[in-house]
């Protein structure tokens, strides 16, 4: 059973017979008769009670008519949705933990309010995980920081993050000239491998011909900063994250050298997969950047 069968079935019902239905659909009568018979065979039920040239719906036909109206209306709705260019339907967005916590609440609140026909889902992960999900088609778009292969993706620059090293309050200077010869802290607190901020902190250590003795892996920024507050280690975070941390006064902030103190966050989506939903999201993210 396809939509064409249902269109013919509805036309016969509305016209009250094969002849008028054929005229309405600009088809020959034999074609209409054949399609109705084939539809009855597919369903294993008689759809019409025949009285000469007049056709009346059978009980099975009455049942099918209700479904036909809904299916054809849904098909019209789908056609309109594809053609009208308005954001609608499911939209899976990915982002890093810091971006989700600090940057997205306001713009996503506006997005949900302005586009109620969109069913938004937000998922977090590191850039490699997010890029893989976009490439696999399980995610429509993602906000990522760091190097992502450009070939399969299109991208739009969104945020430029200032990065800082944080330690417990009163910690000795970490990156100042006075501390240039000092040994870096032995423990870092970071996300799992794949996090670009962790990688940047490890490169900072490598630039001092050192590596942390221990890495404590944490799954949220507030937990990470809580560990830093009590002196478990140091961390590298976007400066914007600090504004959301209630114990900010118990942290010391240490600047990174120029060139290492910022990171670009882009919105990426699969090449050729630009959609009204992505376009609408960019329109809300850019003013908030």
Features:
Arc Repressor Mutant, subunit A; D-Maltodextrin-Binding Protein, domain 2; rod-shaped; 289 residues; 7-stranded mixed sheet; alpha/beta; 3 domains; 11 helices; two-stranded antiparallel ribbon
Please describe the biggest sheet, giving its number of strands, its sense, and whether it closes into a barrel. 7 strands, mixed
Q: Under CATH, the topology of the largest domain is which?
A: D-Maltodextrin-Binding Protein, domain 2
CATH homologous superfamily placement of the largest domain: Periplasmic binding protein-like II
- The first-to-last residue Cα distance is 51 Å
- CATH class descriptor name of the largest domain: Alpha Beta
Can you tell me the overall shape?
A: rod-shaped
What count of domains describes the coordinates?
3
Q: Quickly count the helices.
A: 11
Description of the structure:
This protein is α/β, with parallel strands linked by helices and 289 residues long. It has 3 domains: 3-84, Winged helix-like DNA-binding domain superfamily/Winged helix DNA-binding domain (Arc Repressor Mutant, subunit A), CATH 1.10.10.10; 89-159 and 264-288, D-Maltodextrin-Binding Protein, domain 2 (3-Layer(aba) Sandwich); 162-262, D-Maltodextrin-Binding Protein, domain 2 (3-Layer(aba) Sandwich), CATH 3.40.190.10. It has helices at 3-15, 18-25, 29-43, 59-84, 97-103, 105-114, 127-136, 196-207, 221-229, 239-242, 276-288, and strands spanning 48-51, 54-57, 89-95, 118-124, 141-145, 153-168, 187-190, 214-217, 235-238, 251-255, 262-270. The strands form 3 sheets. Strands 3, 4, 5, 6, 9, 10 and 11 form a 7-stranded mixed sheet that branches. Strands 1-2 form a two-stranded antiparallel ribbon. The protein has a two-stranded parallel sheet with strand order 7-8. Helix 8 (196-207) links the parallel strand 7 (187-190) and strand 8 (214-217). The model has no long low-confidence stretch (mean pLDDT 89).
């Amino acid at each position: 059973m396809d939509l064409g069968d249902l269109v013919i079935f509805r036309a016969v019902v509305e016209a009250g017979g094969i002849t008028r239905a054929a005229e309405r659909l600009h088809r020959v009568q034999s074609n209409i008769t054949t399609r109705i018979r084939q539809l009855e065979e597919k369903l294993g039920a008689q759809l019409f009670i025949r009285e000469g040239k007049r056709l009346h719906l059978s009980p099975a036909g009455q049942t099918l008519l209700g479904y036909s109206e809904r299916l054809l209306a849904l098909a019209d709705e789908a056609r309109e949705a594809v053609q009208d260019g308005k954001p609608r339907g499911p939209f899976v967005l990915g982002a890093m933990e810091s971006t989700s916590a600090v940057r997205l609440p306001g713009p996503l609140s506006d997005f949900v309010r302005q586009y109620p026909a969109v069913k938004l889902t937000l998922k977090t992960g590191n850039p490699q995980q997010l890029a893989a999900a976009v490439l696999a088609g399980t995610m429509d778009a993602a906000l990522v920081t760091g190097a992502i292969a450009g070939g399969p993706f299109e991208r739009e620059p969104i945020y430029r993050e200032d990065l800082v090293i944080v330690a417990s309050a009163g910690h000795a200077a970490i990156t100042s000239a006075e501390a240039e010869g000092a040994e870096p802290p032995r423990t870092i607190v970071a996300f799992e491998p794949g996090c670009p901020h962790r990688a940047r902190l490890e490169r900072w250590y490598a630039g001092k011909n050192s590596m942390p003795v221990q890495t404590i892996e944490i799954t949220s920024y507030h937990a990470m900063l809580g560990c830093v507050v009590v002196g478990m280690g140091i961390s590298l975070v976007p400066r914007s994250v600090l504004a959301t941390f209630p114990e900010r006064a118990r942290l010391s902030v240490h600047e990174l050298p120029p060139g290492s103190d910022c990171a670009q966050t882009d919105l990426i989506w699969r090449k050729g997969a630009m959609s009204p939903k992505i376009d609408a999201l960019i329109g809300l993210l850019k003013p908030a950047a």
